[in-house]
Amino acid sequence: MKKLIVLAICTALYTSFVIFSLHKPSSVVSDDHMTDVGKLMPVKVKQVVKETELTSIKEVIEEAKREDLKVSIAGKRHSMGGHTYYHDSVVLDMTGYNKVLDFDKEKKTITVQSGITWDDIQQYINKHGLAIQVMQSQNIFTVGGSISVNAHGRDIRKGSLISTVNSFRLLTADGEIPTVSRKQNEELFYLALGGYGLFGVILDVELQLMDDELYEMTTEKLDYTEYSDYFREKVLDNQQAKMHLARISTAPDSFLTEMYVTNYELASEEGPLQEHDELRKERMTGISKFALGMARNFDWAKDVFWEIQKQYFLKANGDLISRNNVMRSESKFLEYEAENDNDVLQEYFVPVDKFTDYIDDLRDVLTAEELNLLNITVRYVNHEEGPVLSYSDEEMFALVLLINQGLSKKEQKKTGEIVRKMIDVTLTHGGRYYLPYMPYPTKEQMKRTYPRSEEFFEKKKQYDPDERFTNFFYEEYKQ
Ligand SMILES: Cc1cc2nc3c(=O)[nH]c(=O)nc-3n(C[C@H](O)[C@H](O)[C@H](O)COP(=O)(O)OP(=O)(O)OC[C@H]3O[C@@H](n4cnc5c(N)ncnc54)[C@H](O)[C@@H]3O)c2cc1C
């Protein structure tokens, strides 16, 4: 009888989670109220406009100028700190501006409108045997939104997204449309790339592609103290290894000690890419969503969730997978709609050789605090000097933390205090934090993390003296 009741409860929960999975989270609360996927800062905006043509986008900026209105630019709104809106601003939703404009198979280049998603591009280029060089792990984001944060992903050889952007056109506050690249308007290139929509509207973008490749997946279990050496010797020095992702446990039984790492090495057999290059659709959404849902609420379920994830990857040892499919990681199970709480992200970069000491100190902070930490993935980013707001001045591991937190002011205050402590620890180890998330860090922490931030904000005033393009991130951190 008892078993039956447990089974019935589990089935009911499972069904409700599956039903939730069918709902797309909306970041437009109502016509004039907006928030983003973080849902922590809803405000009234003047209007959300979704344009599909360049002439209408230009008109939006001209009208805003005439009426002295602020403009915020939005892609898929997966940044979480009000980066895509501002109170009483006109929000320019770019997701309708999403066509492929040009494609050169020989040169391996594609020119796209910036509201296109990575998924759209993959659908277009996969049949030509080509792949994206650098993007996030998931393919749900727009190109414009990804360029504006200078995204990074599982590739360990190509650097961050900036290295794959040949050029773009930028609609600036004065209505001009310069072409921006390493050779033309170079200064704007390094400001707008990682510029959080503050230097103008990125219109069309030429991206450098590469051949799709076939990889063999290998997954191993490690202790966190072995990770830095393992990564240098077995991954970085192994030229066959092209992509990499690791996880460190947030489950109580193995908290911040156990890891498993997945490497994607060029498959030795030649030719069978075609047998593996059909683009994958999301699988396992219901089960993953259920396991994550339980982990939000129970510590024992965090242990179960960790075991399920680990076994899933260990079981895939030796599987062959195309590059395009590695870059289509599951994302639907992360969608979460609840009235009083939400899942948010934090990301910290730490020098490769400091990883062990860093984790020890992070564990000390987290053991003393109450933070509902659900997952940490680890990626690698290499030295990237170009962007003015560069997050990586040496070889770094990037730790992405998935945190469940309450939406109330009290809960935000509590999470904010813990985040600031984690950032202090990160800075102590020569690390940095990533900017697309909640504005919990202090201005001082922002300045320490991004030594060129003063220059960034000065240039913003120079290129856009009326601060036409604005958002809450800018409001919070400008000098
Ligand atoms: C589940 C999840 C997983 C993630 N994984 C990764 C990851 O693996 N690696 C990583 O680097 N990041 C990751 N991120 C962060 C993500 O890359 C950024 O939030 C990115 O900006 C999302 O793209 P978007 O289309 O939603 O942009 P939005 O959030 O809509 O916009 C982000 C910024 O870009 C600006 N912008 C958007 N379009 C334009 C345009 N056309 N012209 C000028 N400015 C524009 C906006 O004003 C805003 O400041 C992740 C986020 C989530 C929620």
Detailed description of the structure:
The longest helix has 21 residues, at 2-22. The strands form four sheets. An eight-stranded antiparallel beta sheet has the order 16-13-15-14-18-19-17-20, sandwiched between helices. Strands 7, 8, 9, 10, 11 and 12 form a six-stranded antiparallel beta sheet that branches. Strands 1-2-3 form a three-stranded antiparallel beta sheet, with no helix packed on it. It folds into two domains: 95-211, 2-Layer Sandwich (Uridine Diphospho-n-acetylenolpyruvylglucosamine Reductase, domain 3); 214-437, FAD-linked oxidases, C-terminal domain (Vanillyl-alcohol Oxidase, Chain A, domain 3, 3-Layer(aba) Sandwich), CATH 3.40.462.10. It is of the alpha+beta class. Mean pLDDT is 91; it is low at 1-29. Helix 7 runs antiparallel to helix 8 (299-315). The protein has 14 helices and 20 strands. Helix content is 33%, strand content 24%. The relative contact order is 0.13. Residues 37, 73-79, 83-84, 94, 114, 136-138, 141-142, 144-146, 148-149, 151-153, 196-197, 201-202, 334, 345, 436, 471 line the site of flavin-adenine dinucleotide.
Question: Averaged pLDDT, please?
Answer: 91
- Supply the number of helical segments: 14
- Strand percentage lies at 15-25%
CATH architecture of the largest domain: 3-Layer(aba) Sandwich
Largest sheet: 8 strands, antiparallel
Distance between the termini: 64 Å
Which structural category do the helix and sheet elements fall into? Answer: alpha+beta
Poorly predicted ranges: 1-29
Calculate Rg over CA atoms: 22 Å
How many separate domains?
2
Strand order of the largest sheet: 16-13-15-14-18-19-17-20
Report the helical percentage: 25-40%
